[in-house]
Amino acid sequence: MKNVPLSEKLGAMAVVDRLRHQQLHVQEYLDLPRRRDEIANGIRDYYQTHGIAFDDALVEQGVREFFSQRLAFAPPELGGFGKLLTRLLLLRDTPHRPAARRGADLGWLIPVLLGALLLLTFFAFVIAQDIKSKQAAAPETSPVTIITAPAETTHPPAPQAPPRAQQAQPPAMVQTEPPAADQGQDMLRQAEPRQDLRTIELHPF
User: Fold this and answer.
1) Cβ neighbours for 88, distance < 8 A, ≥ 6 positions apart
2) How far apart are the first and last CA of the chain?
3) CA 153 to chain centre
4) Which pLDDT tens digit goes with each residue over 33-68?
5) Three-class SS string for the chain?
6) What pLDDT was estimated at residue 57?
7) What is the spatial distance between Cα 133 and Cα 54, in angstroms, rounded to a whole number?
8) Of 19, 30, 68, 79, which alpha carbon lies 20 to 30 A from 110's?
9) What is the average pLDDT score of the chain?
């Protein structure tokens, strides 16, 4: 025992502890009467602390029915493929069926599996060929370096003076002479209203 390394001792102790805990759990779950009494007492304490009226016989009956269905195994519902495999296994293990009949029932499964395998291989080959053809058709692009000359610094052109002919000239001064005295009198005469002497009537005062 002195030559046994410490790591192996610790590993063995871990396994022993795990098995011991599993055994305690199994014993706890298999001791159904004691477990039922503990759960029933817990339910009664809960009802009493919350002020809920209860019947001891009803609590006992509910706990007993719960434990009667607790360890029952409910098989999961099988799908289509699971049902097929189950049927094949049942046909294979049927003792009253002759061996030739059982072999005939399973004989069609081998061609189906081989056909599915060949179909998958064909699709994989087609996809690989398609990928290779696309890679071969794609042109090889090499990196292209573009060298640009430095930009020349250009100065903006100086504004040019407009030609002399297009330069704005000051408007010419127009001298107006005052109208003559005779012309002014004629204009006044034309502006005065004319009266027809024939339409004037004299009224005595």
Assistant:
1) 105, 106, 109
2) 174
3) 53
4) 888 888 888 899 999 999 988 888 888 888 888 877
5) CCCCCHHHHHHHHHHHHHHHHHHHHHHHHHCHHHHHHHHHHHHHHHHHHCCCCCCHHHHHHHHHHHHHCCCCCCCCCCCHHHHHHHHHHHHHCCCCCCHHHHHHHHHCHHHHHHHHHHHHHHHHHHHHHHHHHHHHHCCCCCCCCCCCCCCCCCCCCCCCCCCHHHCCCCCCCCCCCCCCHHHHHHHHHHHCCCCCHHHCCCCCC
6) 87
7) 80
8) 79
9) 73
Please determine, for residue 16, whether its predicted confidence score (pLDDT) is greater than 90. Answer: yes
Closest residue by Cα to residue 43 from 67, 24, 68, 70: 67
Higher pLDDT, 183 or 50: 50
Q: Which two structure tokens, joined as six digits, stand for 124? A: 């994989």
Residue 88 CA, distance from chain mean position: 43
What the block records as the tokens of 75 is 């098989």
The residue assigned the tokens 């022993």 is 16
Structure tokens at 115: 């056909």
What's the rounded Cα separation, in Å, for the pair 85 and 78? 10
Q: For residue 92, give every residue at least 6 positions away whose Cβ sits within 8 Å of its Cβ, in sequence order, or none.
A: 102, 105, 106
Q: Rounded CA gap, 70 and 129, in Å?
A: 58
**pLDDT at residue number 186:** 65
